[in-house]
Specification:
The complex is a heterodimer of chains A (253) and B (73). In chain A, strands 3-2-4-5-7-6-8 form a 7-stranded mixed β-sheet, sandwiched between helices. In chain A, helix 1 packs across helix 7. Chain A is an alpha/beta fold and 253 residues long. Chain B has 73 residues and is an alpha+beta fold. Chain B has one domain: Alpha-Beta Plaits, CATH 3.30.70. Chain B is 14% helix and 23% strand. Classes of the chains: A alpha/beta (253), B alpha+beta (73). Strand 1 of chain A pairs antiparallel with strand 4 of chain B.
Chain lengths: 253, 73
């Protein structure tokens, strides 16, 4: 009996092995984006913008044109690239330190201006690359290297809910939150990423997919426990859902 | 039931064990040897040919280390 390949590395990923820690879901999200790019047949016209943070080396892993932005400035760079090359598909790939701390102004204004770009936002509630310090998205009470007794909201304030925030901007067309903890949720995240890219292709405005991710190393959990922690703790504070889907995007489905 | 199999690129695998948690038949295990990176890679143990090529292990793999094959698709 002849056997056929039913699952393999997408063309939009290079052969380079990633530097991510074992069990880190950055790799899963990279693959989902690459699969969507392959599926839509847009690899030759897509430009990615890599962030500063763990995903700073994303340009080594995506088999397409990828630019590297200054910390937090990916949406500004994407704005420029998209405005001079409106026929290209431009996406930013940003973590919570990049997008929700130093880059909060850029993302809010890019969404508010209704820039026709797509942002994939990785929320893992911690600064991964720098050693597990508190991020704006760190949960109340969560222990990090800079909050050894847990995040005290009286001192450090409350975590930022980015999808809800961006959904309030008039320029946003598609804003949703997903997670990548098991095959079913991964499939749902992939659908959302696809719709976000389709919204951009249909010139409907700004699209953002927030993805709850794990950081086993900095959380001090094994990869399986880390995914359970996402489902039990992160999804409780950051509910999954569709926060803004304009009618034109709904009709793309 | 469809028949399938998987091929694990051992040197891409980081031994995170996530694939072992999703196989409906519990066919994916962690090997007793080390790969070039120093991780114990996952491996398919399927003497009875139970693998259906459902792709769940590959879909949760963060390192795209698994290629899935199915017979007579």
């Amino acid at each position: 009996m002849e056997r056929k390949v039913v699952f393999a590395k997408p063309e939009a990923l290079t052969d380079a092995p990633t530097h991510y820690c074992p069990g880190c879901t950055h790799g899963v999200v990279h693959r989902l984006i690459a699969e969507v790019i392959d599926k839509l047949g847009i690899r030759e016209i897509t430009i990615g913008i890599a962030p500063v943070g763990c995903a700073v080396l994303a340009y080594n892993y995506f088999n397409l044109d990828v630019a590297e932005a200054a910390h937090g400035r990916a949406p500004a760079m994407a704005t420029g690239l998209k405005r001079v090359q409106p026929d290209k598909v431009v996406f930013t790939y940003q973590g919570d330190g990049d997008l929700a701390a130093i880059g909060t102004a850029e993302i809010v204004h890019a969404a508010s201006r209704g820039e026709n770009i797509t942002t994939i936002f990785i929320n893992n509630a911690v600064y991964g690359m720098t050693g597990g310090q508190m991020a704006p998205t760190t949960l109340p009470g969560q222990v990090t290297t800079s909050t050894p007794f847990g995040r005290d909201v009286k001192i450090a304030g409350y975590p930022l809910r980015v999808a809800e925030l961006i959904a309030t901007t008039s320029g946003a067309a598609y804003v949703v939150r997903r997670m990548v903890t098991k095959p079913a949720t991964i499939a749902s995240a992939k659908k959302a990423i696809k719709l976000a890219f389709q919204a951009q292709r249909a010139e409907l405005g700004f699209s953002l997919v927030e993805i709850l991710s794990s950081c086993p190393t900095n959380w001090g959990l094994n990869p399986r426990e880390a995914l359970e922690w996402v489902e039990e703790n992160m999804a409780a504070y950051y509910p999954l859902g569709d926060y803004k889907v304009i009618d034109e995007v709904k009709s793309l489905k | 039931m469809a028949k399938g199999t998987i091929l694990i690129d051992e040197d891409r695998c980081k031994g995170c064990e996530l694939c072992t948690t999703v196989c409906p038949f519990g066919l994916v295990h962690i090997a007793n040897h080390f790969n070039a990176k120093g991780y114990r890679p996952s491996t398919l143990v399927d003497p009875e040919g139970k693998c259906t090529g459902c792709t769940l292990c590959a879909r949760i793999c963060p390192d795209v280390a698994i290629t899935v094959y199915r017979e007579g698709v």
